[in-house]
Design a protein that fits this description.
The complex is a heterodimer of chains A (459) and B (377). Chain A is 53% helix and 9% strand. Chain A is of the alpha+beta class and 459 residues long. Chain B contains 15 helices and no strands. The two termini of chain B are 45 Å apart. Classes of the chains: A alpha+beta (459), B mainly alpha (377).
Chain lengths: 459, 377
C-alpha cells in the first residue's frame, strides 16, 4: 500500500509538461505587474499613500519596514524594472527574487493598503522563485543558447494549487449567515450601483438579485477550481471566470484584482493552448527579432535541487492551508473583531465603517482633551483605522508618544469607537475605559474589543 | 490525432467567447442615458429637491437679507447715528441667522471661493482688523487665515458691538475724527459679502441642472459631495466650532472667547439652533418655506430598508441635540464660565448624531465620500 502510494508520487513527480506553459505565464505575469505598478504610480498613490502620511500603520513584527520618503519611488522603480526583466526573461532568478522582495516590502510599508490580492501576488512571486519559468521564450535561453522543451508537471501544478486555495477559501468564508441569509453586504453594495447602465436601475435593486448573487458567488468560488481541473468542464469554467471577474470589475472598485485572477487561471489549460499563444508571440517577434541560430534543445531538463525545492513548497502549502484557520485561536465573532482575519482570502465579506474619537488624559493634572484625527492621519488612514482594532491600538500608542514628546508626562489614551457591520446599527467597538496606551501590542486575544452580542453563524 | 483536433475546436470556442465577452463588456460603457424605468429610488428627484427646495431658496433668502444689510449700511454711512446703527445691527443679525442655512453647501462656486470661511471665520482677529482700519489697506481676496479672520460676520460683530467695551459707545467711533476709516472698513466688508453672495447665488441659478443630473455614485457625484458637505458641516461647523472648541473639548482649558457672535454676546445659542435646524431640514428634505417631508436622505434610508431603525434614530438624535442646546444660556461664553458641563452634554449629543450620520448612514447608503479612490477588495 505504502509502496503503491510512493510509486504514484514518484510517477507524478516525473510527469512532464511543455516548458511553454510556465514561460508564457511568466511573460504575462511580468506584463500584468508592470501595468499594475505603472497604474499605481500614475494615480499618484505612491505620494498619497506612502509619502504624505506622517505616520504609518505597521504589521506586527514588521515595524521596521517603512516608506523611505521620496526614495519610496526608487523601490517602485526597482520593482517595475524587475517586472520588465521578468517579461523578457532576462536573469530570471534574480529578477523574480527582486520582484518578490520589493513588492512585499511595498506591501509591508503600511497595512492601511492591505488587499488580499496584493498578498496573493507576494505568495505567487515567492512560489515562482523556485519554478523554471525562463526555459523558453526568454533572453536567458537565447544567451545560454539552449532551451528545454519539457518541465516537471508539478511546477505548473503548484501555481494551480495556490489559485485553487484562494478560490476555495474565499468560498468557504462565504458560508456564513450574513452572506447567505441576509445577502449582506452585497445588498448594500448592489443597491448603491444604481447608475450602472441597463441593470442598475431595476435588476440591482431587487432583493432576489442580491440573494442570487450571494449564493452564486459562493458556488462560483467553491466550484471553479474543479471546473478548471477537468478538461471536460475547463472551457465553461474559464468562461465563468471571465464573466464573473469582469462583472465584479464593473461593480466594485477593486482595481487590478479581476484581471489578475482571470490571468492566474490560464495555467489550467494544457500544452496546446500555450503552443497556440507561443505561435502568436513568435509571429509578432519575427518582425522585430533577429533569429538566433544555435539553440540546443535540452530534452531531459532537470531542476537543480528539486528535492529541496519540493520540501520548501510542501511547507509553504501546509502553511497556506493552516493560516486561514488561525482565527479559531481567538474568541468572539470573526467578522466583528477581525482577529486572524487577514491573509485568509476573506474577500468582500463585510461592509464596515467606524468612527473613533480619541481622548488624551494627562494624569498629572487630570485634564483631558479630544484629538482631531485629521491632524495626524490622512482621510484614507482614518477611515481604515476606525473599524480595525489593531490600527486603533497602534494609533493610540502613536498619540501617547506624540503628546509625551510634547511634555505630557503621564499620557493615557482612551477611545470612543463605534462600528457598523453589514447594515447593523453601529455599536460601541472598544471598551472606553481601557487606557490603550498601557496595552502592549501582541497577537494575543484583545480583551478590550467589545462583543457583537449577536452570532454570525458559519465560517 | 482526433484528440488534438477536438482540443483545437475547443480553443476556438475559448477565443470566441473571450472575444464575445469583451465586446459585451466594453459596449456596456456606451449605453448611458437609458430612459429610467425603475421602481426604485430616483436619486435625481432627491437631488432636485435638495437644490430646488433647499439650497436655492436658502441662498435667495440669504441674498435678500444680505442686501437689506447693505441698504442699512448705506443709510448708516450717509447718516451715522444711533438709530441707524441699531437698524444695521438688526439686519446683521437677520442675515447672520439666514447664513446658517447656507453655510453647509460648500460645493461649486462656494467651495471655489471659500465662501463659508470668508463669511464666518471666528474668533475674528481684531489686531488685523485694527491694522487694516488704520492703514486703509485691505484686499479681501487672498486665501489665507488672517484674511478670512478679518472679514465676514464675525468682523462685523466686532465693528458693530466690540470696538468699545460698552457697546453703547461704539457709535462714537463712527462719529469721531477717524470715523471715515471705520466707515470705509464697514463698507468694504459688506460690499465683499454681497459680491460673494451674488457669485454663489448666480452659480446655483446656472448650474442647478448639472447638479441634478450628476446622479451617479462616485466621490465627485452631486449626492456624494453634498452629503459629505452636510456631514462635514455638522461635525466641524456645528459640533466643533460652535460648541466643542469654546467648551475646551480639544484643549486643556475652556476658550469662552471662541464662541460665535462673541461681541453681541447673546446670540451664540440662537445661531447654533438655526444651524441645527438647517441640518435637520436637510436630512428630512424640508424646505425653508414649509415643513413637509420631501425626498431626502431620510426617505432614501427608508427605501434601502435595512430594518435597523436608523432613519428615525437620526431624527431622534437631532431632537435630542436640540433639547440639550435649548437649555443652555443664550450667551455661550457665560454658559462655559458658569456651567461647562451642560455645554459638554450638548457636545456629546451632537457627537452621537455624527456617529449615526458618518458611520451608519454612509455605510447603509454606501455613499462613497473619499477623495482617495484606492482599490478595495
Amino acid at each position: 500500500m505504502i509502496l503503491k502510494i510512493q510509486s504514484r508520487i514518484i510517477s507524478y513527480l516525473n510527469k512532464k509538461c511543455s516548458s511553454l506553459n510556465l514561460s508564457i505565464f511568466r511573460i504575462g505575469f511580468g506584463a500584468l505587474m508592470f501595468f499594475s505598478l505603472l497604474r499605481f504610480w500614475y494615480k499618484g498613490w505612491i505620494e498619497l499613500l506612502y509619502i504624505k502620511p506622517k505616520f504609518h500603520f505597521s504589521y506586527y513584527g514588521f515595524e521596521w519596514v517603512k516608506p523611505l520618503n521620496e526614495y519610496t519611488y526608487l523601490i517602485f522603480l526597482i520593482c517595475i524594472i524587475s517586472t520588465v526583466l521578468l517579461a523578457i526573461g532576462y536573469k530570471y532568478r534574480i529578477s523574480i527574487i527582486v520582484f518578490f522582495l520589493s513588492f512585499t516590502y511595498i506591501e509591508l510599508m503600511d497595512k492601511t493598503t492591505y488587499l488580499n490580492h496584493y498578498y496573493f501576488i507576494s505568495c505567487l512571486s515567492f512560489l515562482m522563485i523556485f519554478l523554471p519559468a525562463n526555459l523558453n521564450l526568454s533572453i536567458d535561453s537565447k544567451i545560454q543558447k539552449k532551451k528545454a522543451l519539457y518541465i516537471p508537471q508539478w511546477s505548473v501544478d503548484c501555481i494551480k494549487l495556490l489559485v485553487s486555495i484562494v478560490f476555495i477559501y474565499a468560498g468557504l468564508a462565504k458560508l456564513n449567515s450574513d452572506w447567505l441569509f441576509n445577502a449582506m453586504p452585497l445588498k448594500i453594495w448592489l443597491i448603491s450601483k444604481y447608475d450602472i447602465p441597463i441593470i442598475g436601475e431595476y435588476i440591482l435593486q431587487q432583493n432576489w438579485t442580491h440573494y442570487i448573487m450571494s449564493w452564486g458567488g459562493m458556488f462560483y468560488d467553491l466550484s471553479i477550481p474543479f471546473l478548471l481541473i477537468f478538461s471536460r468542464t475547463r472551457i465553461i469554467g474559464f468562461v465563468f471566470v471571465i464573466i464573473f471577474h469582469l462583472f465584479t470589475a464593473i461593480l466594485f472598485p477593486i482595481g487590478m484584482f479581476p484581471y489578475i485572477m482571470i490571468f492566474s487561471c490560464i495555467l489550467f489549460f494544457h500544452d496546446n493552448f500555450f503552443k497556440k499563444i507561443s505561435n502568436i508571440i513568435k509571429k509578432i517577434l519575427k518582425k522585430v527579432y533577429i533569429k538566433t541560430k544555435l539553440i540546443e534543445v535540452e530534452k531531459n531538463y532537470k531542476i537543480q535541487n528539486e528535492k529541496k525545492i519540493i520540501y520548501i513548497l510542501l511547507v509553504f502549502f501546509i502553511l497556506q492551508l493552516i493560516i486561514p484557520f488561525r482565527h479559531i485561536l481567538y474568541d468572539g465573532e470573526l467578522l466583528w473583531k477581525e482577529e486572524g482575519y487577514r491573509f485568509s482570502w476573506r474577500v468582500m465579506l463585510t461592509e464596515k465603517k467606524g468612527t473613533a474619537i480619541f481622548k488624551l488624559v494627562d494624569r498629572t493634572t487630570n485634564t483631558s482633551f479630544l484629538i482631531n484625527n485629521d491632524e495626524h492621519l490622512t482621510e484614507f488612514q482614518e477611515k481604515q483605522m476606525s473599524f480595525q482594532s489593531d490600527f486603533i491600538l497602534e494609533y493610540a500608542h502613536y498619540l501617547g508618544n506624540y503628546y509625551k514628546n510634547k511634555g505630557i508626562k503621564k499620557p493615557e489614551v482612551y477611545v470612543d469607537a463605534f462600528v457598523t457591520l453589514n447594515g447593523r446599527k453601529s455599536k460601541r467597538y472598544i471598551d472606553s475605559k481601557t487606557n490603550l496606551y498601557e496595552i502592549k501590542r501582541s497577537l494575543k486575544s484583545k480583551e478590550w474589543i467589545l462583543n457583537l452580542d449577536e452570532e454570525i453563524y458559519g465560517f | 490525432m482526433p484528440y488534438l483536433y477536438k482540443n483545437s475546436t475547443n480553443m476556438k470556442i475559448t477565443f470566441r467567447s473571450i472575444l464575445l465577452i469583451s465586446v459585451l463588456y466594453f459596449s456596456c460603457g456606451d449605453s448611458a442615458d437609458i430612459p429610467s424605468t425603475n421602481d426604485g429610488f430616483d436619486r435625481s428627484i432627491l437631488l432636485s429637491n435638495i437644490s430646488n427646495n433647499i439650497i436655492i431658496p436658502s441662498y435667495n433668502n440669504f441674498d435678500i437679507k444680505i442686501n437689506e444689510l447693505k441698504l442699512a449700511k448705506d443709510q448708516f454711512i450717509s447718516n451715522p447715528n444711533q438709530s441707524n446703527i441699531n437698524e444695521m445691527r438688526n439686519k446683521w443679525l437677520n442675515s447672520y441667522r439666514s447664513f446658517q442655512y447656507v453655510e453647509m453647501f460648500n460645493i461649486g462656486k462656494s467651495e471655489e471661493i471659500n465662501f463659508h470661511k470668508r463669511m464666518n471665520t471666528y474668533p475674528t482677529n481684531t489686531t488685523i482688523i485694527n491694522n487694516n482700519i488704520d492703514n486703509l489697506m485691505y484686499d479681501f481676496t487672498a486665501d489665507n487665515y488672517s484674511n478670512y479672520s478679518s472679514q465676514g460676520f464675525p468682523a462685523l460683530d466686532y465693528l458693530l458691538y466690540g470696538l468699545d467695551v460698552d457697546s453703547n459707545n461704539v457709535i462714537n467711533y463712527y462719529l469721531g475724527s477717524e470715523s471715515s476709516k471705520y466707515l470705509n472698513y464697514l463698507n468694504a466688508i459688506i460690499t465683499e459679502m454681497v459680491v460673494n453672495t451674488e457669485l454663489v447665488k448666480n452659480y446655483w441659478a446656472n448650474n442647478n441642472l448639472s447638479f441634478i443630473t450628476s446622479s451617479g455614485n462616485t466621490s465627485t457625484s452631486s449626492l456624494n459631495k453634498i452629503t459629505n458637505d452636510f456631514i462635514y458641516y455638522y461635525e466641524k461647523g456645528l459640533r466643533a466650532n460652535k460648541i466643542g472648541i469654546p467648551a475646551g473639548v480639544y484643549s486643556n482649558s475652556t476658550i469662552p472667547n471662541n464662541v460665535e457672535g462673541l461681541y453681541r454676546s447673546d446670540i451664540s445659542k440662537n445661531l447654533s439652533l438655526h444651524a441645527l435646524d438647517a441640518c435637520d431640514r436637510f436630512y428630512h428634505g424640508k424646505s425653508l418655506l414649509d415643513d413637509s417631508l420631501r425626498t431626502s436622505l431620510y426617505s432614501y434610508l427608508e427605501y434601502i430598508d435595512l430594518d435597523n431603525g436608523l432613519k428615525d434614530d437620526i431624527s431622534l438624535s437631532f431632537q435630542n441635540s436640540k433639547n440639550k442646546i435649548e437649555i443652555l444660556n443664550n450667551n455661550f461664553s457665560e454658559q462655559i464660565t458658569t456651567d461647562n458641563i451642560k455645554m459638554l452634554e450638548a457636545f456629546d449629543a451632537l457627537q452621537s448624531t455624527v456617529v449615526l450620520l458618518k458611520t451608519d448612514m454612509l455605510s447603509n447608503l454606501n455613499i462613497n465620500v473619499d477623495y482617495v479612490d484606492a482599490d478595495g477588495d
